[in-house]
Write a structure and sequence with these properties.
Layout: E1 26-27, E2 30-32, E3 35-37, E4 41-52, E5 64-73, E6 78-90, E7 93-108, E8 145-162, E9 165-179, H1 183-187, H2 209-216, E10 226-239, E11 250-260, E12 264-265, E13 277-292, E14 298-314, E15 355-372, E16 375-392, H3 396-403, H4 411-418, H5 424-427, E17 439-450, E18 454-463, E19 474-479
Antiparallel strand pairs: 1-4, 2-4, 3-4, 3-19, 4-5, 5-6, 6-7, 7-8, 8-9, 9-10, 10-11, 10-12, 11-13, 13-14, 14-15, 15-16, 16-17, 17-18, 18-19
């Protein structure tokens, strides 16, 4: 009688190298989209992130990720986003698809070239207690705002050149619809009374900074209402990270070019073909493990990110210069520089120029790991230091010459003629070197993670310089790590 040996089929892996139970199949849940951002206010809505892990052999990497969020904030900012991400839909390629609509009734605008544009907190910080505000200086709570709706549709793909070296390509369109702030909508039931020193209603007759920039010729008629900009980008990445979300070791660096066209302007304005332009981006991220516990879990990681975005050909409209290009859409916001998505603690869009550079440095302390039911959680602390700087400033006199057809050739001249009640020194510094001064912030972050991929982040940051409103700390509650 022949002897037959039957090999026992191995059981699927149940725990990873750190002893944590591996997630398999579909994992999803609907959560309230509750957050806070110093620049956008309190946020309320709903979100869901659906992950598919298959048999778990690649955990904590997922096979498919589908993310949806619909929310609105107390500062009249909306978020409507659908995102898909996978490394397996197309074998050996990573594919990301994103469709986002971001209406913003009060988008931040602090002028051009960072510190060259003076910031005056008393012009917009309203308080009903007269002891805490200077009535003669106060102008409007939305003095540094304008109305901007952003529509973003993007598709990005990544393939392998050799091992950790990847090629990248993407196409998409950015649609901007821009206008002055709608004062009547923002006032609601509040009625402006010029006889009162303190009131919630906004003065509809007060020229905001955005309106002044149009009057001075710094923002032209062909860009003041926005436009639609299809784009294409190509680049390369080098990635040795141990995981995509919250890595503990490895390097991620990318280099890419983005060509943006301009085929029409919003609201039927004249064509914006003069704003076809080419931008260059380079970022370098490094994650250095500093300490492991006796179970092999990384407890302290040093992480930093360096980046630059410059315009290398053509002219870009002002509203696209605070959009940080990226190879993959992973977050809602890509605003820069300033705010919770670039230089934490600084006012959103404080640096607006043709080109900029930035740095984010932090220590990531993994304080505790624990399980609730079948879910794996951790709590971490992240002290950080951020920095941003202008690398390609606007030539303000050149803008005035272009937008006035040569009728004016300098900014002081047109300001004196158009708005004699405003002094040049109220809005701009006289020292050209101020343009290149670094904007710096420091702060502390709290991270609460679930199953390594779902991370709730709370960051508190404060600017160092008075011209970045150093007396006011900013707080953000968001999803995921900054980088």
């Amino acid at each position: 009688m022949p002897l037959t040996l039957l090999a026992k089929e191995p059981k699927p892996q149940e725990v990873d190298s750190l002893g944590r139970k591996i997630k398999t199949g579909w994992n999803f849940g609907i959560l309230p989209s509750i957050a806070y951002d110093a620049d956008y206010g309190f946020q309320g809505g709903v979100l869901t992130n659906v992950y598919y892990y298959g048999d778990g052999s690649q955990y904590p990497e997922y096979i498919h990720s589908i993310y949806f969020e619909g929310a609105y904030t107390t500062k009249h900012h909306g978020i409507f986003r659908l995102n898909y991400d996978s490394k397996y839909l197309i074998p050996n390629h990573r594919l990301t698809l994103d469709a986002t609509y971001l209406p913003d009734a009060m988008c931040d605008f602090y002028g051009f070239n960072g510190y060259q544009s003076r910031y005056n907190a008393s012009w917009h910080q309203w308080n009903k207690n007269s002891a805490k505000m200077s009535v003669p200086d106060y102008r409007s709570r939305v003095f540094y705002k304008y109305k901007r709706d952003l529509i973003r549709v993007a598709g990005d793909i990544e393939g392998t050149i050799y091992n950790n070296l990847k090629w990248n390509a993407g196409v998409g369109v950015l649609g901007y619809i821009i206008d002055d702030c709608d004062i009547n909508m923002l006032n609601g039931k509040n009625v402006y009374d010029p006889t009162l020193d303190h009131q919630k209603a906004l003065n509809p007759n007060e020229d905001l900074l955005f309106e002044k920039y149009k009057t001075w010729g710094l923002i032209g008629d062909d860009e003041k209402n926005g436009g639609w900009h299809p784009y294409a980008r190509v680049g390369v990445t080098y990635d040795t990270r141990d995981k995509r979300q919250g890595p503990n070791k490895g390097i991620y660096t990318d280099l890419f070019f983005t060509y943006s066209a301009a085929f029409n302007a919003a609201y039927g304005q004249q064509a914006t073909a003069g704003y076809n332009h080419l931008q260059f981006n380079f970022t370098f991220r490094h994650y250095v493990p500093c300490f492991k516990d006796k179970n092999g879990i990384d407890r302290i990681t040093f992480a930093y990110r360096l980046g630059v975005q410059n315009n290398v050909a053509g002219r870009s409209p002002f509203y696209m210069n605070n959009y940080m290009n990226t190879l993959f859409i992973q977050r809602v916001y890509y605003e820069g520089l300033g705010g919770g998505n670039s230089v934490r603690g600084m006012m959103a869009n404080r640096i607006l120029a043709n080109g900029f550079a930035f740095a984010n440095v932090e220590f990531r302390f993994r304080v505790v790991n624990f399980d609730i039911g079948r879910q794996h959680f951790f709590i971490g602390l992240n002290p950080f230091f951020d920095l941003g700087i202008v690398t390609q400033p606007y030539n303000l006199d050149e803008l005035v010459t272009i937008h006035t057809g040569g009728a004016y050739t300098s900014l002081p001249a047109i300001m004196a003629d158009k708005t004699p009640q405003d002094k040049y020194s109220d809005y701009f510094t006289s020292n050209p070197a101020d343009v290149y001064m670094p904007h710096m912030t420091a702060g502390l972050g709290l991270k609460i993670g679930m199953n390594e991929n779902f991370v709730l982040s709370a960051d508190w940051g404060m600017p160092i310089d008075e011209q970045d409103n150093a007396k006011r700390a900013n707080f953000y509650v968001k999803m995921g790590y900054l980088f």
